Amino acid sequence: MSGNRKEKVTVQTQTLEEAEHTETETSRDVYLREGRTLSVTTEGGEDLVEIRSASGLVEVRIKLTEEGPVLQIEAARLQLKASEAVEIESKHVAIRATETATIASEGKLALTAKTGIKVEAESEQEGEGEVRVKGKMIYLN
User: Fold this and answer.
1) I need a labelling partner for 35 at 20 to 30 A (CA). Which of 4, 46, 109, 110 fits?
2) pTM of the predicted structure, to 2 decimals
3) DSSP 8-state secondary structure symbol assigned to residue 22
């Protein structure tokens, strides 16, 4: 059997006033291809949208909180691609890799900071970490 699979989902809505006085958890599930499930849940005054794998593991979660939405993605691979720009703006940004981290540019690469840039190479043995800098001209200080 081929073609597009369509489902009709009917959701009962409440006014904001009715929802505030309802303490019960509500949940709606939509079954997707390859065993995935899309769930929309309201609990504790927060809305939660989840996509779970066939084994039940959360792959994508959007939690709508009073402070704003929180996006969580758990996958073997995450790929962002944009024709113009990818921008991240936050008070704190942390990128951690358990094996290798690479930053590459076919144009210029700029690292700027108002209070300083710290480059460290740590090793199990004291003084064994290496930092290599290659270039036609290297300016220190």
Assistant:
1) 46
2) 0.58
3) -
Distance CA 101, CA 94 (A): 12
Return the sign of the alpha-carbon dihedral for residues 37, 46, 94, 109.
positive
Cβ atoms of 25 and 38 within 8 Å: the answer is no
Size of the chain, expressed as the number of residues it contains: 141
How far is 134 from 131, CA to CA, in rounded Å? 10
**Whose CA is closest to 36, among 75, 80, 79?**
75
Partners of 71 in the beta sheet? 62
d(CA 122, CA 129): 5
Taking residue 68's Cβ as centre, other Cβ atoms within 10 Å add up to 7
Tokens of 83: 């024709």
Q: What is the tens place of the pLDDT at every residue in 5-63? A: 555 555 555 555 655 555 556 889 999 999 999 999 987 778 999 999 999 999 999 99
Q: State the pLDDT at residue 24.
A: 59
**For residues 66 and 40, what is the distance between their CA atoms, to the nearest angstrom?**
17
| Residue 61 main-chain phi, psi, to 5 deg | -135, 130
